[in-house]
Design brief:
This protein has about 120 residues and is mainly alpha-helical. The protein has five helices and two strands; from the N terminus they run βαααβαα.
Length: about 120
């Protein structure tokens, strides 16, 4: 693992897993290049940091998607995109007032990026 790289381990629901897999596939088709989960989340965070995230969007997402589950996901957050990830994470933490921000952030960032055609 490179210096400054963090490993994020979360457990998500099947519904969130499907969202992530579908977004990776759509992003891969759109870019005409295979996109991994890291690449998809990285692009979502990069494009969302200046987009703005509302509390209503988070509430709508949480009402539509079950978050916690038993599907384990590992995500490496490298130094080249950790500022983008942390900026979106801070905003989600601020508006969510819930523990387990990473578990919400990963599918929520991808959900928003898809919703707003940012991927």
């Amino acid at each position: 693992m490179a210096a400054g790289t963090r490993n994020v381990r979360i457990f998500v629901s099947e519904q969130c897993f499907d969202l992530l897999v579908d977004a990776m596939a759509a992003y891969s088709k759109e870019s005409r290049r295979f996109q991994t989960l890291r690449m998809t989340v990285q692009a979502a965070c990069s494009r969302l940091k200046s987009h703005g995230i509302s509390k209503q969007e988070l509430e709508d997402f949480l009402a539509e998607y079950a978050i916690g589950g038993d599907i384990r996901i590992f995500l490496e957050v490298g130094p080249e995109w950790s500022k983008d990830y942390d900026a979106v994470r801070a905003k989600v933490k601020e508006i969510s007032e819930k523990p387990g921000v990473d578990k919400i952030l990963v599918p929520f960032a991808v959900y928003l990026a898809v919703k707003h055609n940012l991927l």
